[in-house]
Specification:
By secondary structure, the protein is of the alpha/beta class. The chain has eight helices and ten strands. An eight-stranded parallel beta barrel has the order 1-2-3-4-5-6-7-8, surrounded by seven helices. A two-stranded antiparallel sheet has the order 9-10. Helix 7 links the parallel strand 7 and strand 8. Helix 1 runs parallel beside helix 8, helix 3 packs parallel to helix 4 and helix 5 packs parallel to helix 6. The radius of gyration is 16 Å and the shape is globular. The two termini are 20 Å apart.
């Protein structure tokens, strides 16, 4: 689809943690290419029930890609959610056994797969190169899946962009950069990492709510680099 399809010089922008039609409207008005809907997670912001995610995804329709974030670690569990929410893309936020990717492809060939790699050091380059052949895109974030309470996104923390740049250079799949991005640093992030796209949640919010000024500023800054 267009969100993933190659288009030289055109950065993609995903606004995540959308929790209502009102927030979706703000993101669409700002020019976002994709909107993230966070389903059940062990921690983090923007979590909504599957039926609410489904209603928002249906309302967004073809105006933007819809990305369902899931913490489930089996193909059967993910397919169950996708059948209800009906997103364009499923963002797999935790590790998945390699054999599950083929099962996902067979069960839902119409949905793109985006695997999150939590950048915690140089070993993350190997993690990304191992999973890249099985998915349509990779998203680099700053979670801690090994924490006592798993952090699978929405931390607002920046990770080592040098490692992220190495991942972009090592894989052929489109790479999206997340983790601590703001209107003030997204230009530097894009110029340093050279990702296919960027993803933002907490960096465009005030008091937990999506802020029109911040989201417009973020999207504009990202597109200015393109």
């Amino acid at each position: 689809m267009q969100f993933i399809a190659a288009q030289p010089g055109r950065i993609r922008v995903k606004v995540c943690c959308i929790s209502s039609k009102q927030e979706a409207t703000l993101a669409l008005q700002a020019g976002a290419d994709a909107l993230g809907l966070v389903t059940d997670m062990p921690s983090g912001p923007g979590i909504i029930a599957d039926d609410k995610a489904a209603a928002i995804a249906e309302w967004i329709g073809p105006r933007a890609a819809t990305v369902m974030l899931t913490s489930r670690q089996t193909a059967a569990g993910i397919v169950e959610q996708v059948s209800l929410v009906r997103p364009t893309i499923v963002q797999i936020c935790d590790a998945l056994p390699v054999e599950e990717y083929a099962r996902l492809r067979e069960a839902m060939p119409y949905v793109l797969l985006m695997q999150v790699v939590h950048v915690q050091g140089s070993a993350s380059v190997n993690d990304a190169t191992s999973v890249a052949p099985h998915v349509d895109a990779i998203l680099l974030d700053s979670g801690r899946p090994d924490a006592a309470v798993k952090e699978l996104g929405g931390t607002g923390r920046r990770h080592d962009w040098a490692v992220s740049r190495a991942i972009c250079e090592a894989v052929s799949a489109p790479v999206f950069l997340a983790g601590g991005l703001t209107p003030e640093n997204v230009r530097e992030a894009i110029e340093t990492v050279r990702p296919f796209g960027v993803d933002v949640c907490s960096g465009v919010r005030r008091r937990g709510m999506l802020d029109s000024e911040l989201v417009h500023g973020f999207v504009s800054a990202a597109y200015d680099v393109s």
